Please model this.
Amino acid sequence: DQQVKQNSPSLSVQEGRISILNCDYTNSMFDYFLWYKKYPAEGPTFLISISSIKDKNEDGRFTVFLNKSAKHLSLHIVPSQPGDSAVYFCAASVSGDYKLSFGAGTTVTVRA
Amino acid sequence: GAVVSQHPSRVICKSGTSVKIECRSLDFQATTMFWYRQFPKQSLMLMATSNEGSKATYEQGVEKDKFLINHASLTLSTLTVTSAHPEDSSFYICSAPLLAGGLETQYFGPGTRLLVL
Model:
């Protein structure tokens, strides 16, 4: 049973424009959410996280928004750069549990 | 961020042999580490939780006798794929959590590509 869902398998965006990646979850116990970036044949790299006590967290070009009532979060990348082309995974956990549930990933391609 | 290493990065072995993969947290201690596997174009699937000083906890459907886990120290966990078969070919990734600012973040190793012939 997939508790974290990324319904868009791919996204193509022009360099300099905004990339918006979406993630939905079903487990209301989740209270900590993370985004990871992954290149082929490499481990995921932590990008940004958000706790359920917040609805927005920003770090440079990356902003994560959380809508608890809708059980939805999104990652905004602006401006998008060619180096951002990768697979992005949304993950969720219950604080103190450490175990992560991952979405299926969204492949982002930034066009020059 | 925190650094987690894995060794080897790539291994090719014959069917029936055993393969050991090491996961190390380089600049922090981890009483718990996690092992994932990823099949092509799929998400990361948690296999087991490695606990320092006690037995590993396996996810449903993962054979504990097939995938032996030993958490030898606060910075090292090993995954041994015993009697490997071609269907065990996959990308294995470990992670270790680091608690900072009251929030825990999982840091991942670079992964190990296993090919069983």
About this structure: The CA atoms of residues 4 and 109 of chain B lie 5 Å apart. The two ends of chain B are 36 Å apart (CA to CA). Chain B touches chain A at residues 1, 4, 6, 32, 34, 42-46, 49, 91, 93, 95, 97, 103-111, 113 (CB under 8 Å). DSSP finds no helices and eleven strands in chain B.
